[in-house]
Amino acid sequence: MESIFRLIHKLGPAGIVLKAIFAALVADGLLLAFILLRRSYRKRYFAKRDARVFHFRAVWEQLISGKIPYLAWRGKIFDRRVVESLALDALEAAPPEGAARVLNFLRVSGLLQTRIYEARKYHGWQRRKALVALGQTRAAEGIAALGEGLRDNNAETRLAALRGLGRTGLPAAAEEILRWVGERGLVVPALPLENALMNCCRERPQLVPRYMAAAHGELRELLGRVLGEVATQTMDADLTEMAGDQAPEVRASAARALGNARPKSALPVLAEMVKDPVWFVRLRATVALGQLRTVRAISALLLALTDSHRLVRLRAAQALADQDEDSSVIFAAVAHTEDAYAIDAYITAAENAGIYGELLEKLRTGRSMEEERRRHLLDIASRKVAPGPGIHPGVSAEPDAVVS
Q: In the 8-state DSSP scheme, what is residue 234?
């Protein structure tokens, strides 16, 4: 009796096809067996993990208070990982006092020091995992190890260390990041670096100008954006210097910072910045002037309302519509510009702000201006006539009269 292999050989080309079909069936069978085995293993793993999580949740108070000896679970890798995961999750949602208690548990139990060791000695995904966990703890002890991770040759590891430092929110972490970018330059994506610095510099924004002075190009612009979000009133001189920077992006960031921090020099500096040659700098300055919510900013906003760029005009109109000053007085100053685009932008902003009906009513019943002028302003506000010369006969409606 001939063997199966001899019969297949006699089939010629058909035998090769038969062998391929057989090999495919064997491969499919092995793959299916692997999938089933893996699913079975993971099912058992998650069942075991759920059971341990339930157990440790039930005794959580005794666990973090130290009533349950640390040696009862530290020697078991599975239990140690479960406890650490629960502690890190608790840190995310706990109030300050509760977070301090959990962090003390991580210190006393040695879990924090274990992660620091792993972040320094391990490589690849294990090091990245340790760096992320260190960031979650927000512990000052982990900053040095995270700083070492920033200098790793692997880009993903550097990014994990950067995000870990950003999560701490500590000024010491900001100094570590700033020293690193001072040494290496911008070697990570700009957005995670910007977010990390914003989070860490809020307590001490004065750190940024010191490093910004030596930065150039894209890095300088990034540090300017960070300072635009975290600057305070005490940084008046730094912000004024930024407003005169050669880089338009830095000047735009200065405008944002002046609007957020509102130092004493904010109004005069922003009033000059609405004349900047770059449109988006004028746009940021206009938005910042609106944030000041002061009648003294109206003159500068009226200048921005006649800007050549549409977005600047729209934001100036929105800022004017949000002012607490009498809308009819502001509209009189807007109409004095005799700029059809400016007037249309203000009327549209008034409609969006819900004060357009109030404006028309004040123009109908107002007694503070001459009748002929009041009617003409009403016709312009109602879009019955086009703006032009002769809308203010006999009465001055200079923009400065609004703020007098």
A: G
How many Å is the Cα radius of gyration of the chain? Answer: 34
Q: Extract the tokens encoding 280.
A: 């988006």
Whether 292 and 262 have beta carbons less than 8 Å apart is answered as yes
pLDDT tens digit sequence for 185-242? 888 899 999 999 999 999 999 999 988 888 888 999 999 999 999 999 999 899 999 9
Which are the contacts of 165, defined by CB distance < 8 A and separation ≥ 6? 135, 143, 146, 147, 150, 173, 176, 177, 196, 200
Residues 6+ apart with CB under 8 A from 398: 333, 336
The vertex-317 CA angle with 314 and 320, nearest 5°, equals 150
Kind plus residue range of the DSSP H or E element containing 206: none
Rounded Cα gap, residues 374 and 360, in angstroms? 11
Separation CA 207–CA 201 (nearest Å): 7
Q: Which residue has the higher pLDDT, 9 or 371?
A: 371
Q: What is the pLDDT of residue 395?
A: 33
Cα 229 to Cα 34, 195, 215, 258: the distances in Å are: 52, 10, 18, 10
d(CA 63, CA 341): 69
CA 247/CA 241 separation, integer angstroms: 12
3-class DSSP state of 214? coil
**134/146 Cα distance (integer angstroms):** 8
Would you place residue 339 in the very low, low, confident or very high pLDDT band (cuts 50, 70, 90)?
confident
Average pLDDT value over all residues in the chain: 86
Q: At what angle do helices 77-93 and 96-108 cross, to 10 degrees?
A: 160
Distance CA 134, CA 149 (A): 11
Q: How many helices (H) and strands (E) does the chain have?
A: 24, 0
Virtual CA dihedral for 141, 144, 149, 152, nearest 10 degrees? -160
Within 10 angstroms of residue 103's Cβ, the number of other Cβ atoms is 20
Question: What kind and span of H or E run contains 315?
Answer: helix 310-321
Confidence of residue 71 (pLDDT cuts 50, 70, 90): confident
Could you tell me the end-to-end alpha-carbon distance of the chain, in angstroms, rounded to an integer? 116
| Residue given tokens 């391990």 in the structure block | 122
- Residue 81 one-letter amino acid: R
Find tokens 């760096």 and name the residue.
131
